[in-house]
């Protein structure tokens, strides 16, 4: 009897997936992973095409619900209902309508208006580090900054940021797994119930007293006579909080870690501040905060000799695509001056990240200000990575600040 072929992707690869993903690109660009519970597309061209392919559904709420026994589906109904109205994980025509309305409220002007506030929040967080030789960058800067910014964008009190962060973490735990455990799903359900109760109160207040925040913009948005109904408003607030916090927090931590582990690059960026934007963009390629996105095949597909059946889960690996030597010259090199950097860190096509401009702005301000104020900062111990196949980041990143400039 022939010996079974070894798995090319296992839980042992969670903390450093890149060698395994390189094997997939080379040996099995369309690979069935028992660990991930679906097919993995690993080459840039295939991942890019997958994001645009209407035969691959983004409706993860529907596919998740369909796999559940009826009693469990009923118990998790509020969670499923909330996720079903996320523009991020819906298909046309619902996605087209939701995205159009969200775009009307989530404008570049709204993001740019937050620039002074982002700088003020960053300065305050760095002020709090004074007098400390060593700090953990994750709780000190990377986590609080995005949640305070997204809270400001939604018009929420800064005092609520701790609760907002806890809700975002619970959703990240749920969204990061291929098959969530009952305990994780129950935690996500509690999170959704609490968030919806919170946002109902905020929305009711904004109806009476609209302002210049995103929730007021969502209430006012209209597209071809259509407006967001109550569940869509609640779901969009949930999606914006989750997406606006998780991606940016991990982008900041990843960027700092990459610069501190590449001292020559860090020296270039400090000597040439104009390279900072390129360093953030290269971080999105080299250490994308979102490593993969899920899809479901709506019909039988054949790709690279493999048959993907209708209803199969398909994982689009951005982490792999962003290091594909077929797309990028010398992809294992971190280059802040890289040209034609068509990474997929913010997705591509209809589901391109609506908050990409805001995430870039926050990361540039946070990392740039940190390097200016603490030019001699160094790693101060072994960092601890998130054990999550979807979200690439850190639970702890200790740094030695050095002298403040």
Percent range of helical residues:
40-55%
Number of helices: 18
For the largest beta sheet, what order do the strands appear in spatially?
1-2-8-5-3
Q: In angstroms, what separates the terminal alpha carbons?
A: 68 Å
How much is the average pLDDT?
Answer: 90
Count of DSSP E strands? 12
From the spread of the alpha carbons, the general shape counts as: globular
Order of helices and strands: HEEHEHHHHHHEHHHHHHHHEEEEHHEEEE
Category by helix and strand content: alpha+beta
Q: How does this structure look, described?
A:
With 405 residues, the chain is α+β, with helices and mostly antiparallel strands. Helix content is 52%, strand content 10%. The chain is built from 18 helices and twelve strands. The chain has helices at residues 18-27, 44-52, 60-66, 70-75, 77-84, 94-105, 108-113, 115-127, 137-142, 144-154, 161-175, 182-208, 214-220, 230-261, 263-271, 276-286, 318-321, 356-373; strands at 30-33, 38-41, 56-57, 134-136, 292-297, 301-303, 306-308, 313-317, 378-379, 384-385, 394-396, 398-400. Strands 1-2-8-5-3 form a five-stranded mixed sheet. α6 crosses α13 (214-220) and α8 runs antiparallel to α10 (144-154). The longest helix is centred in the middle third of the chain and has 32 residues, at 230-261. The radius of gyration is 21 Å and the shape is globular. The mean pLDDT is 90.
